[in-house]
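User: Second chain of the day. Same drill as before.
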Amino acid sequence: MQEKIKEILKWKYVIIIAIGIFIAGFILFGVGLEDLGMALILLSPVILIIKVVLFICRKLGIKLEKPKPKKVLVKEEKVSSISQQEIAIEPQLLNKKGWSKYKVKCPFCKAEIPADALRCSHCTADLTEQKSQMEIESQVREIKKRGIVIGIISVILVISFFSFIVWVSLSIPSTPSQQQITKLQIGDEGFLKVGNDPNQVVFLATNLDAFDELIKIIRAKDEYGLLALGLQGRAFGVTNGTKVKIIDTGFGKRRVRIIQGVKPIDEDKVGLSGWIPIEWVVSQF
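Assistant: Same format as last time:
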């Protein structure tokens, strides 16, 4: 029971660490540190994969470290008294190291016992006979096989889950420029870009509350809602390609200041600032 609790705790800590690293990477990616964020996002499933590989190796009895040779001292007077049957059984008994964590059924009474038991604690049957040893060994092999299958399925599920999350985070169809992952930070200059139409109007929200509403309006293609937001002074528009400076960042968004317009109509917006999705700012237009 204690072995099972220790194993569960080990898995629990590894999963918590992996999830923590993934969340940290996702946050860093959202605030503009794309390289570091992506590295942490990709690291999190690797940690779980390593844990699963070690788990499978342990189930198979594979030792990653080089085993130290053990000297076996056998007294001469006792060798002559060992029968041929005992000699055949002895190697199997020596190979039972680590079997205590496996629970098997007694070959006689079918009660659950540790796999390394030499005598059944229920029916007191002698388990050192070759036939009993072979049956117990067969049960242990089946348990190891099930562990391997579970481990492989776990690896597939973990990789699938994290791959799906990464794919969703990189392929949100908000704008065509989402594919251009920028490396711009606070203080850097860039250009507003939404699509490839140079006459496209890019809307900026004047505050965070207006930003959330602006995103909903754009996704819903609500032109009247966009007009109302502009009339309320909570959003304004400039021409695609307007030059800006990043002055603040948030999760999935950036605050930029207009420093140079594209058309004369944009000149009165120079100096204003607003919030836009992170992917709307590119280093080159």
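Confidence is low (pLDDT under 50) at residues 71-94, 173-182.

User: Great, on to the next one.
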